[in-house]
Design goal:
homodimer; alpha/beta; 6-phosphogluconate dehydrogenase C-terminal fold; six-stranded parallel β-sheet; three-stranded mixed β-sheet; 11 helices; 9 strands; oxidoreductase (chains A, B); Preph/Arog_dehydrog (chains A, B); Prephen_DH (chains A, B); EC 1.3.1.12 (chains A, B)
C-alpha cells in the first residue's frame, strides 16, 4: 500500500480518475475527497459511486492523517488551494498536482510558502476526455498515457520517486523534465492548437451569423475544430497561466502564415507543395509515436 | 435513364464514386472512363471492379456518343482537360465537373472556349474520404452530402436542371450559388483550415526534429492535425486556385490572433473567456446543422 490515506482536492474528471485508478491498483487504503460547499452534490455523487470513501467541505479534517495529497483543481485555482493547505502542511505527507501548466504552480507555491516545499512534486498527466465531472472518471484514464513530473533542485528524491511509482502503477509512462521545458512543449502541442481552434471558430462563427457558411462545412472541419468545444474556463486559465510560452509561439505561427501567404502570392507551387509534404510527413512521425 | 453514355474524365475516388453512385441508382446505361497513359493500371482496376464498363486512353473515342461528361481531375488540371475536350465539344452532351474551387473552372473555360459554354455546369460535391484512388470509391459517398452548383447567366436551364437531378438522385442535397460565393464559403470552412493545419504541423515538425515535442502530444492534437495528412498536390492546387479568397482570410485570421495575443498580454480573462465561449457555441451550431 503506497498511501494509507490519500486526499484528492477537487474530485472532477481527473481527480476522480486518480481516485478510481489508485483504488483499482490498490495504491491507497483510504481515499477521501475535498471540495467547496458548492461542490457538495458532486462529492455526494463521488461517494455514492465509490470513487471516494468520504468527503469533507473543511480542509482541516480532509487532510487529517493524510500521507498523500493530489491537487486536481483548475489551473487558475492552484494558489488559493496552496493558501488553504499552508496551515496544515505536513512533513509526513507527499503533495502533488495534475495541472496542465507547471511554472505557474511553482510560482504560486513560492509566493505562498516562500520557497517551494521539498515534499511538493508538480506533475501533469497528459490525459483528458470530452466529458467532465466525476461521473466521467475512469480507472484506466492514465493507461499508456504520458505523465510529466517537473521536480525542482530541492525536491526530496524519495517524494519524487514515490510520485513516479504512483503514476507508473496507474499505467502512465513517466517523463521527468523542467517546468519550463514542460510548458514550452505543451504550449506547442496542446495550448497553441486549442487557441488556434478557438480563434478560427470565433472568427468563422461571426461570418456564419451573416451568411451561413457552416451549412457547407464537412467532416474535416468537424475534426479540426473539435478542441474548440473544450471548456472555456479551463482553457482561459491554461492560456493565461502559460502566456509567456504562448505569445512567442503565436508570433512564430504568424511568421509561418506570412511565409505561406507569400508563396500563394508568388504562385510558388513548388515550395507550397514542399511545405504541405513536410507537414504530412511530420504528422506521420507523430502518429507512429502515438501508436508505440 | 438520365444518360445513355456517361464519360468520367479521371476515375479516382470522386470520379469512381460518381460512376458507382450513378450505376447503383440506374442513372446511366453505359459508363466509360478516360485517363492518361500513366493511369492505365488504375483504369484497369476500375474496369475489373465494375466501376466503369470500358476505358479509353484517347479522348476522342472516350467521348464518342457520350451525352454526359463528368470531369473529376485535380483542380490544377482542369484547363488542360478543357483543351482536350474542345475539338470534340458537342451540343448533344452536358458537361459538369467536381472541382473544389469554382471560379478557376469558369476562368479556365473562358480562356479555352472564349466564353463559358451553356452546356457546362460547374459543380462541387462536398465529400471526400481519407483514402484516394478508385479502390476507395463508394456508391453512397454523396448520400446526405452537400452539392453546390454554380451556374452562369448563360447556363442552359435544362442542363442545370439535369445536373441538379443527377446529384439529387445520388443522394446529395443540392444548393445553387455563384462561383464567387462558393469559393468564399469553401475558403473559410475548408481551404483555410487545411492551410492552417499544414502551417502548424510544418512549424511544429521542425521543432520536433530538435526536441521531440510530438512525444507529448495527445488525442486533441491528432484530431486537430488530421487534415494535415491530406494529399499535398491536391491542396497545393486548391490553395493556388483560390488564393484570391484565401489571402484576405489569412489577414483576418492574423488580426484575430493579434486580438487574442493582446487579451493574453493584458490578462483580460473576461474577454478571453467570452471569445472561447463564443467559439464553443458557434461550433455547437455547426454540429447541430451537420446532424440535420
Amino acid at each position: 500500500m503506497m498511501f494509507d490515506r490519500l486526499c484528492i482536492i477537487g474530485v472532477g474528471l481527473i481527480g476522480g480518475s486518480v481516485a478510481r485508478a489508485a483504488r483499482s491498483q490498490g495504491l491507497a487504503r483510504c481515499i477521501v475527497g475535498y471540495g467547496r460547499e458548492q461542490e457538495k452534490p458532486n462529492l455526494e455523487t463521488a461517494k455514492r459511486l465509490g470513487v471516494i470513501d468520504e468527503y469533507f467541505l473543511d480542509i482541516g479534517p480532509a487532510l487529517r492523517e493524510a500521507d498523500g495529497v493530489v491537487i486536481a483543481v483548475p489551473v487558475g485555482a492552484i494558489e488559493s488551494v496552496f493558501e488553504q493547505l499552508k496551515p496544515y502542511w505536513s512533513d509526513n505527507c507527499i503533495y502533488s498536482d495534475v495541472g496542465s501548466t507547471k511554472s505557474n504552480v511553482i510560482v504560486a507555491a513560492g509566493r505562498v510558502f516562500g520557497t517551494v516545499p521539498a515534499n511538493l512534486v508538480p506533475a501533469h498527466p497528459i490525459a483528458g476526455a470530452e466529458n467532465s465531472g466525476v461521473e466521467a472518471a475512469l480507472p484506466d484514464l492514465f493507461q499508456r498515457r504520458r505523465l510529466i513530473v517537473t521536480p525542482l533542485p530541492q525536491t526530496e528524491p524519495s517524494a519524487l520517486n514515490k510520485i513516479q511509482v504512483f503514476w507508473e502503477r496507474m499505467g502512465a509512462q513517466v517523463s521527468v523534465m523542467s517546468a519550463d521545458h514542460h510548458d514550452a512543449v505543451l504550449a506547442a502541442t496542446s495550448h497553441l492548437p486549442h487557441l488556434l481552434a478557438f480563434a478560427l471558430v470565433d472568427m468563422l462563427g461571426r461570418q456564419d451569423e451573416q451568411c451561413e457558411i457552416f451549412k457547407y462545412a464537412a467532416g474535416g472541419f468537424r475534426d479540426f475544430t473539435r478542441i474548440a468545444s473544450s471548456d472555456p474556463t479551463m482553457w482561459r486559465d491554461i492560456c493565461a497561466a502559460n502566456k509567456e510560452q504562448l505569445i512567442p509561439l503565436l508570433h512564430q505561427l504568424k511568421t509561418e502564415l506570412d511565409k505561406i501567404e507569400q508563396l500563394l502570392a508568388d504562385n510558388d507551387g513548388r515550395r507550397l507543395f514542399e511545405t504541405f509534404s513536410y507537414a504530412r510527413n511530420a504528422r506521420q512521425r507523430f502518429l507512429d509515436q502515438l501508436e508505440n
